[in-house]
Each structure stands twice: as C-alpha cells, then as structure tokens.
Amino acid sequence: MKKLKRFTFLLYFSLVSISYIQAQKAQNPVLYADVPDLSMIRVGKVYYMSSTTMHMNPGVPIMKSTDLVNWKIVSYAYDTLGNSDELTLSNGKWDYGRGSWASSLRYHNGIYYVSTFSGTTGKTYIYSTKNIEKGPWKCVSFKPSLHDHSLFFEDDGRVYMVYGAGKIILVELNADLSAIKIGSKPKVIIENASLPAGANTGLPSEGSQLFKINGKYYIFNITWPKNGMRTVVIHRSDNLTGPYEGRVALQDLGVAQGGLINTPEGKWFSYLFRDFGSVGRIPYLVPVNWEEGWPVLGDNGKVPAVLDLPASKGLIPGIVASDEFNRTKAEPLLPLVWQWNHNPDPKNWSVNKRPGYLRITTSRIDTNILLARNTLTQRTIGPVSSGTISMDIANMKSGDRAGLMLLQRKYGWVGVKNDNGKRKVVMVSDQKGTVEGEEVPDGQQTVFLKAHCDFKNRTDKGYFFYSFDGKTWKSIGEPLQMSYTLPHFIGYRFGLFNYAVENTGGYVDFDYFRIETK
C-alpha cells in the first residue's frame, strides 16, 4: 500500500513538473491573432517580422522581438498606397481583400527593405530605410504587380525577385530597385512547384520565399492539393536559375506558407501560419533540423504544441492594446496597434479637439457601414477577447449611427442610432438586420458598449452588450456567427465608427477603448 501511494505521489509530481515546465515554454500558435504572410529577418539578436493587413492603413506592419515569441508593432512601411476611389471608400467602391498583399522583408548592407504588391494599383512596391523602427521610409514602385514575390540580394550585388503561382519565375531588378532591369526577361525556374505534393492540385504553389544558405538556394512555397491540406513545399538548387529539386517539407494541421529563421545560438525554425476560422490566419513556429542539406520541418513531421522558446507574455500591449486617448505633445496621435479601415479622412477625426477623447465627425452620407470613412480598428485575438468603449453621444445628428463593431464581411455592431432626435441602442448584423434595444434615457450623454469574441475550438461567436452606467450590462441581439470570408480576406477586427445616413457634421467622442482576454 505504501509503495502504491509513493508511486501515485511520484506520478502526480511528475505530471505537475511537466505542466510547470511546459508553462515556461512557448506554445503554438505563437500569436493567436491575424498575422498572416509572415516574412522574417534577424539582425544581430533582434528579429523583425512583416505581415499583411491589406486594406488597412497604415500598411505593412513591422513587428520586433528578441525571442521569436513576444512581438511588438514598431513601424509601418507606408501610410497609404494612393487615393483612388477604392482606397478612399468613395463613390460606392471599396478595396476589401485587396490593398497590399504578402510582403518580403530583407536586410542588406545596413539598409532594411520591405517589398509588397497590390492588385488595386497594379504595382510592386519596395520600401527602404536605415532605421526600421523610426524610419523614414523611401518608396519606389513599378509595374507590373509581382505576385507573392521574394526580394533577393545576390552576393555579386545583383538584385532579383522570385514570384508566381504554379510556375515560379525569376526576374532581375535595376540596381536602384526602381524597375525590372531593361533587357532582363522573366525566367521560369520551376515549371510546376506544386508537383512534389502530387498532380491533383487545388491551390497552385505560391507565397515564394527565397533563401541562400551555405551556398545553396532554397525556395519555400505553399500549395494545397485537392481533398488535402495546405502543404509546405521546398525546392533546392546549387544555382539561382536552377535546376531545382523539390520535396514536401510539412503536411500537418494545414500549417504552411513562410520561411526560415535561425537564432544567434544556431537553432533553426520555420515561421508559418494556419487558417483558423474567423480570428484569421495565425502564426506558428516549427523547429527545423538539417539533414543532407535539406531543412526538415517539425517533430517527426508534426507541428509541436510546445516549443523550446520562452513563454508568451500575451499579445497586450504589443499587438493590441487598450487606449484612453490621452496624448502628450510628444506622443503620436494614435498608437501603432490602431489601423484605419481604408484611407482615413484626417480632417474628420481628432484626439486634440477634446483632450482625452477620440472624436469622429461625419462628413458625408453613407448607406452602408462597410463604406463608412474613419472606422478605427484593432485585431481581435483568441481564444477569447472583449472590447469595451465609452462613447459620448451628445452631438449626434438625426440619421447618425455610432458604436463598436466586429468588422468583416459578415459584420455585427452594437451602438446608438439617432432618428429624428430619438436615440436608441441597436445591434445590427449583416445576417439578421437590426435588433432594437432601449431608448437612451433623456439627459443621458454617455453610453457604454461591449463586443465579446469566442474563438475557442472555432466556435466563432460574437456577443454584444450595452450599459448606461458602465457597471450593469445587458445583452442585445442574437450571437453573431462570425465567418472568415475571402472578399475581406482578413480576421475580425474591433472597429470604432460614426457614420451618417441623413445629415453631416454630427460627431461622437470615444473616451476609451479597453481590450480584455476573458
């Protein structure tokens, strides 16, 4: 009996010890938020990563880490791509799911480069700076738009891009990166990059990332065999122009698209992402070992749940953050966690007109919240997250709608509508229309609103609440069934908005936005 008790105690102690050790290590996904199309570099002991945010501005976020797990947004490559109707939500046009796509981040001869491309403008963009965290960024652009390209600096000083879908193409650029080199003809270097995953291709290989390691060239691609899952394919060659041999590098959980990074201590990882429902495409790290000159991804071909890296401290405040809208003269108007839905209209928002508040003023008539200018957004994060706002509605005009939304094509929002002076709390969704709640009491100037997201096990439910005192909360409307849709191609976001359907010039003042993970 004593031996049994001792065995039970030792087993319990071992399990507790294992749990404790795992709690001190990083878990996959390393970021439970929409941070897709990763490109990563290490400069000394510091890592930088770029990602895709498409129609959000400023665009191409740059994140910084010292351990590959805990990241903070430190910069953006651009403020806006241009001023077309699609980019400014004008004349009924929009740019959802477009804007700028997968970027390529590089460091060469003391200069940082991040390149991207846009189906909206039809251009390829290359941004450069000596200070990746503070800028300024210089921009050159040219046509055509090179799909899912990888910027590559060769040892002899020549510069190339590898790009394409299915067929992988190499092209040389001018030394100043301003255009495709005159006389340089695009060359197909891999005829069918999907082939290692089988002939029955659904999504042709794309998302190219090119690396030169120990004298060999490696090209990472993602492909998606029919009736299969997203798959990592790697091709290798002794020469930049080929010939290339390829193999499947990872086929597990649909984790794919990315590249390679190593630590100062010599450990290798592959950074990849996974489609994970309405929260978006979330980053994973997979350990890499080298065998006969090939990077071998995963633990026996599997994506591990626990990594030999420091534990995450959470995504707040590096990726998302609360904001009381208090600003000193030395601080930027908006922290980097915020992005505008499309190009903002700078004349009609302010954090200075009423110190301690974000003011959004209507300047035109809109028929749809997805067309509203100056919707200010942050990512939602998993497994659960809530956003809460306090909003002063005293200066709304008839026809104004203002509040807090969960932004995607299948959106939902809770807020206040003012019709002929009657102010009423409403919950509106793309799926169910409008659910009316209480009238705002006479003399009530402040309304509190909350949106809660449940992404656990891909539940993908959104819940909405309101309060007149910030303490007692009432639910409103049915839960929103959130869904990741390709027309928007981005995970759900919290959005602060005010738009008009009758009169312009009304405004609301947001006192705070607070995010929680419970």
Automatic annotation (TrEMBL):
Keywords: Glycosidase, Hydrolase, Signal
GO molecular function annotation: hydrolase activity, hydrolyzing O-glycosyl compounds
Keyword Ribonucleoprotein: no
Residues marked Important for catalytic activity, responsible for pKa modulation of the active site Glu and correct orientation of both the proton donor and substrate (site): D148
GO biological process, one term: carbohydrate metabolic process
InterPro entries: ConA-like_dom_sf, GH43_C2, Glyco_hydro_43, Glyco_hydro_beta-prop_sf, Glycosyl_Hydrlase_43
Record's signal peptide: 1-25
Keyword Cytoplasm: no
Gene3D superfamilies with a match to the protein in the record: 2.60.120.200, Glycosyl hydrolase domain, family 43 (2.115.10.20)
Residue positions of the active site: D37 (proton acceptor), E206 (proton donor)
Annotated Pfam families: GH43_C2, Glyco_hydro_43
CDD domains named in the record: GH43_FsAxh1-like
Residues covered by the Beta-xylosidase C-terminal Concanavalin A-like domain: 323-516
Stated family: Belongs to the glycosyl hydrolase 43 family.
Protein name (record): Glycosyl hydrolase 43 family protein
Organism: Pedobacter frigiditerrae
